[in-house]
Structures are given as C-alpha cells and as structure tokens.
Amino acid sequence: MTDQPSLYEGLTTTRAIRRYLPDDIPVEDLNDIMFAATRGPSGHNVQPFRFVVLRHTPEAANARSITARGFVEAWKSQRQEPAKDDPSRKARMARTMSHFVDNIAEAPVIVFALHDEARRGRDITAGASVYPACQNLLLAARALGYGGVITQWHHPVADELADALKLPEGVVIAATIPLGKPAGSHGPVRRLPLPDLVFENHYGERADWLQDPEGTRYTGG
Ligand SMILES: Cc1cc2nc3c(=O)[nH]c(=O)nc-3n(C[C@H](O)[C@H](O)[C@H](O)COP(=O)(O)O)c2cc1C
After folding, report:
1. Cα of 201 to ligand 1 centre, how many Å?
2. 197 lies in the same domain as 110
3. What's the pLDDT score for residue 78?
4. CA 169, CA 158: separation in Å to the nearest integer?
5. Whose CA is nearest to atom 7 of ligand 1?
6. Are 57 and 115 in a shared domain?
7. What mean pLDDT do residues 23-33 have?
8. pTM of structure
C-alpha cells in the first residue's frame, strides 16, 4: 500500500485522473474501494445507489467497447488537436482528453454508478443520494494509490449500455468512473478563491475569517 494521505489532505488533492498505468487493480483493493463507496450517505439512508464494476474479463468486453464509443462521441464536438510542440496548459489538457476518450476501453477498471429510481425519485435530492458515494469511491481509490474521474459520457450510448449491463427498469447510470493507477499524479485541486464561494449571513457578503491556505492555486490562473 502507498503512503496514505490524511483524510483532509486527500480531499483537497484528489484530482480528476484521466491517464492510467496498465496495472490491474487487485480485487482486494477494489473490494475496499467499493466498500467505501457504499458507505456514502443518502437521504433517509435508502441507498438508491448500485454499482456495476467492469474489470478486464471477457464478460466485460462488450460494455467496455460500447463505453468507448460513447466517450469518443461525447467529446467529439470539443475535441482539439494542438500542435505537438505546444506546451500550454490548454494544449496539454486537450491531449489528455483525446488520450482519455481514445483509451477508455483499456482503463484498468470502469465503475458504473447507478441510481435506482424506485428507491428514490428523480428530483435533485435523488441524485444527491448517489454522488456522495461516487466521491467516497474516488477518495478511497486515492487512499489506496489509484485515481479516477466522475464522468457523464455514457450518455450517447446509455440505452445500449443499459442492455449490456442488464439494468432493470428504472435503474439508470448516474456516472461512469474509470479507475487505475495514475500515470500522472494527484495534487492540490484548483478552484475559485474561498471568499468567492463562501459567504456569511447573506449571499455575496464576505467573511473576514475566510482565507485560502498559503500557496492555493486557482482556476483560470
Ligand atoms: C457531476 C460531474 C460530472 C463530470 N463529468 C465529466 C465528464 O463527463 N468527463 C470528464 O472528463 N470529466 C468529468 N467530470 C470531472 C470534472 O471535469 C473535474 O472534476 C473538474 O474539471 C475539476 O477537475 P479536478 O477534479 O481535477 O480538480 C465530472 C465531474 C462531476 C462532479
């Protein structure tokens, strides 16, 4: 096991990981990751989340290949091919995204987070009872030396995937989460400055006790 970050460090440094080493995730680790995911909270503890896990098995091949088509299709309109020698952040991101969608079928593990609408309807609080489990999953993966990202790119092929995964009526894919050992690294995430996001008493009212830790990096910077 890798050195585990503290819980606080983990949750401020768990980045979206979209490039993976080819190493498999041992089932013992996968078990621990899924255990943590299923410890996520849900309204009234009704647990409307379910998960289907794809490893590199023959039975997973069809769903993997359908997923790959969905990812390429979903990213198509935003896809860019920057010049090979362009070192900018934008160009690096474009390369990462192309690599991500082109290689998603090879991700060591793909987890589909499902929402059973029969257990909790379709309103906003229903989804809010699934995504905490997804974040638990990512944080557990991070603790064990893996990384992943919540995605929505199953959308173009959602019906085909529902067939391939044998989803019952009313069970829908809420997120597709590839996982693997990061080819890059985790590190502090970039967000807006804290006082732009958190107010006191009234919306927009600055609180003088709010301060980003020294060295915080921001989006857009
Ligand atoms: C609800 C949700 C949907 C997302 N959908 C996608 C997606 O379809 N494809 C993707 O590559 N990343 C997706 N992401 C990842 C975000 O793009 C990423 O978390 C965000 O850009 C911040 O990057 P960071 O996590 O590395 O700080 C999604 C994240 C969330 C929470």
Report:
1. 30
2. no
3. 96
4. 13
5. 151
6. yes
7. 98
8. 0.96
